[in-house]
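hey so i finaly got around to running the thing on Class F sortase from Modestobacter muralis. pasting the sequence first so u can double check i didnt mess up the copy paste, my clipboard has been acting weird all day
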Amino acid sequence: MRADGGRPAVRPSRVEGRHRRPPRRSVTLLRAALAAVAVTAGTVTLVSATGGGAAPVPAAAAAAPPAPVVLTSPVADTVAEPVQVTAPAIGLDTDLVDIGVDAAGALVPPEDYGQAGWFSAGPAPGDVGPAVLAGHVDNKAGPAVFFRLEELTPGDEVLVTRSDGRQVAFTVTEVAAYPKTAFPTTEVYGPTTGAELRLITCGGNFDRSRRSYTDNVVVYARAV
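ok and heres what it spat out for the 3d tokens, dont ask me to read them lol
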């Protein structure tokens, strides 16, 4: 996805037919509010790894914006940022970098295809709210960091290590694929009552005319 992982949601681009996957922060509520603002500011898209046209992606492809966020707790002075994510079931182990959106409201994935990114305007993993991680699915050279993301299943474990030394364990609750033209923004980015995690990349078929994937894959997980 080039998390949202088309310009998820991320900048991935698997060449159809060349690479096949098997079938199938307490974040201050202020940061959560900023995330909602980022989403409602405009449609977020992910850039195709091979360049060219962009297609709408996870951050705001859906028409309905996230529900309003009400600030009810003091803002923390510092935030423990996530530095690493692992998912043993699919052999995922990568460090994390901060990612954001560009002037057009597109979520900008890491430049390194082997590295995932954390949407730093939103909650940090382990804090209340939906923390968002995004990464590429592949590029012309082959599989990228989130190539096997779609293989995760409910019950699988995802571990996130933070800069304060804390490791937060999440359990996958759902794995879903959505057309980039009908991304469920509220469901993915809306406020939650506890600490949750979203991992986003590209999926579906590769549209050669737009040089982008047709779908976004979203993994939902909850802190345990």
